[in-house]
Design a protein that fits this description.
This protein is 42% helix and 16% strand. It is of the alpha/beta class.
Length: 323
């Protein structure tokens, strides 16, 4: 999509594309990681330069074969979020080469990216939400503590395995899901979102959540279009075009727009919920940083106070962009 269009504009020469039903091989060709690792036995000897966009995906077991089966002596990897939680980014030096140039978001703000600010809003649960949340967390923590589990590292995977074996475990897993649902869709978050949308009625706003249920609730309550993994590509394109033109000022999404989507008109992001990964948070910030004259981007992070979200928020802000 974006790479193919950009290369066509920049060079004017035919640009091939492999994937999504297309199989047009040219001297300059765009493909996806999914298509590349499957097609590389056939095309791996055809190119002298290979560019890996979003190169943090490359160390995955399947995708790495795309690099290993290519003879290209010249390789370039691009990413705004190099480090992976599993440490697999260390394989990139073998697959692509060493890091040769690095700039942090703060270094680029004002010249290549928009100036920006971030705000964290801790918001209380209602008394009813607090009672339900605390009960769910107590059930979850009781099971975890009874088995002396640590949830760091691979501990959560152990919890999932243990939880599947007993009725108590399944109840604990259900309680964990309930606690997340309560925090994700907290009443005060939706009230705060209404205030933010009113404040930024003249801006383009992206609203991010961690779950589809909250996406659809925001879409229903505020009458704004939603994009999830279930949204067909044609409909997704139509929504983003309407967003870019200003016909639609607000779009709510789960994780679909975290990466690989160009939305230069966006100036405001609201994070209602998300994972603890630094990468996801930086990617969401990146959606609003396309520079334009006089623009100051702002990212609001709405956090359920006195909940597990506070720790999640701290961990995902461990990046120079928030320092």
């Amino acid at each position: 999509g974006q790479w193919w269009s950009g290369l066509r504009r920049a060079f004017g020469d035919p640009v091939g594309i492999i994937g999504g039903g297309a199989n047009d091989l040219q001297a300059l060709t765009v493909t996806t990681y999914d298509s590349a690792w499957m097609q590389m036995p056939r095309i791996g000897n055809r190119f002298g330069l290979i560019i890996f966009d979003e190169v943090h995906h490359l160390p995955g077991p399947a995708y790495a074969t795309a690099a290993e089966m290519s003879i290209a002596p010249f390789r370039l990897g691009l990413t705004a979020t190099l480090e992976r939680p599993d440490g697999a980014h260390e394989r990139l030096e073998r697959l692509v080469g060493p890091v040769v140039y690095r700039k942090e978001i703060g270094d680029l703000a004002g010249e290549f990216l928009s100036e920006y600010r971030t705000e964290v809003w801790p918001l209380p649960l209602t008394p009813e939400e607090r009672a339900a949340y605390d009960e769910a967390r107590a059930t979850f923590r009781g099971f975890v503590d009874s088995r002396a589990m640590s949830l760091g590292g691979g501990g959560f995977q152990r919890f999932l395995r243990e939880a599947s074996r007993t009725a108590d475990g399944r109840a604990a897993l259900g309680a964990w899901r309930d606690s997340r649902r309560i925090a994700f869709g907290a009443t005060e978050k939706l009230r705060a979102l209404a205030d933010i949308l009113a404040k930024h009625r003249d801006d383009r706003v992206l609203v991010f959540t961690a779950d589809n249920a909250t996406v659809y609730e925001v879409s229903r309550r505020f009458l704004v279009p939603a994009i999830t993994h279930r949204t067909e590509i044609r409909e997704r394109r139509r929504i983003l075009e309407a967003f870019s033109s200003g016909e639609v000022p607000v779009v709510v999404t789960s994780r679909v727009l975290n990466e690989g989507v160009d939305v230069p008109s966006a100036a405001v992001a609201v994070v209602l919920s998300g994972s603890a990964t630094v990468r996801e948070h930086v990617q969401r910030l990146g959606r609003i940083l396309r520079r334009s004259e006089g623009k100051q981007a702002v990212l609001y992070e709405l956090v359920a106070a006195e909940s597990a979200e506070e720790g999640t928020s701290r961990r995902r802000r461990e990046h120079d962009a928030w320092k």
